[in-house]
Amino acid sequence: APAVIVAIDGPSGTGKSSTSKAVAAQLGLSYLDTGAQYRAITWWMVTNGIDVDDPSEIAAVAGKPDIVSGTDPAGPTITVDGVDVAGPIRTQEVTAKVSAVSAVPEVRARITELQRSIAAAAEKGIVVEGRDIGTTVLPDADLKIFLTASPEARAARRSGELKNADVHATREALIKRDAADSNRKTSPLAKADDAVEVDTTDLTLPQVIECVVTLVEEKR
Ligand code: C5P
Question: Is 102 flagged in the annotation as binding?
């Protein structure tokens, strides 16, 4: 079969990562978590004392960190200048700052180029998950999925992942981040016109995976 390119977009807490990884593993495809790349560049900015409220300061150094993503769905990896940052990119501090960093056009241009080269090198095809994959990064993807879920379901899933009892605070932070991602000028979170929307509110993870696998198989 020729390499198939699958774009999976949507807000946080819709099961994007779990679904994308499982679909890639099941179909023998590579996997790219683009949110991890934006988190990695944010981690570098924070670690190097860059003021993330100053877009010009961010833009000036956007080309500096060397970000490398491993694309095995069984164990995706991410390094910045050779340092494994898989853990540090999931802290609350990075999560709170990632929307500001990823809104800077120079950051997006650089990371988008990286994403396109990774997708082009994936000989067996790839599942790429993010916010703007179907609209901007890979507009010619063979299949575009847009995952949604109610705010309540999304907050509950995130709180479960974080083993955090405070569903309310999680919900507020998540809504704030999605609003920032949806309202930024440069390639905001959006459903592509030709994307298939899947509302996961009342579906289990295995059901969502099966649904997406079926859609990919129809395209192959
Ligand atoms: O998917 P995840 O929650 O890890 O993404 C973290 C952040 O990275 C998002 O809130 C968004 O600000 C940014 N992002 C983006 N474009 C993408 C993927 C993620 O702007 N394609």
Answer: no
